From TrEMBL:
InterPro entries: Ptyr_pPase, Ptyr_pPase_sf, UCP029416_PTP. SUPFAM superfamilies: Phosphotyrosine protein phosphatases I (SSF52788). Residues 5-102 form the Phosphotyrosine protein phosphatase I domain. This is Protein-tyrosine-phosphatase. It comes from the Bacteria.
Length: 114
């Protein structure tokens, strides 16, 4: 692990949930963050380079974790945590920001004592 943990946040198309997470945590000095999506229609599609960069991957749904594990089984995967946040929010929705803030801080506290 690097000096600061590296956090990759993934959702379906990198348009709302993961992009919101990256936006709200982009200036957090405790860790580095980037976001990606699983769909070929993603604003930024998940790549092997993203996975090897990450110390932890946070996904929104269980099916996203399963897809990453199946697609990238040929490389070492970091811990993948499921945040259980449904795709029902708009980008920067205040309830989404609250959920992401709470769940990401909790996941990082467990993983890195942040």
């Amino acid at each position: 692990m690097s000096e600061k943990p590296t956090v990759l946040v993934v959702c379906g198309r990198n348009k709302r949930r993961s992009r919101t997470a990256e936006y709200i945590f982009k200036n957090d000095m405790r860790f580095s963050i980037r976001s990606a999506g699983l769909s070929p229609k993603s604003d930024r599609q998940l790549s092997e380079k993203d996975i090897t960069w990450a110390d932890i991957i946070l996904v929104m749904e269980r099916s996203q974790k399963a897809r990453i594990v199946a697609t990238y089984r040929h490389i070492h995967l970091p811990t993948i945590e499921v945040l259980h946040i449904a795709d029902v929010y708009d980008y920067l929705d205040s309830e989404l920001i609250e959920l992401l803030t709470e769940k990401i801080n909790a996941a990082l506290h467990v993983a890195f004592s942040l």
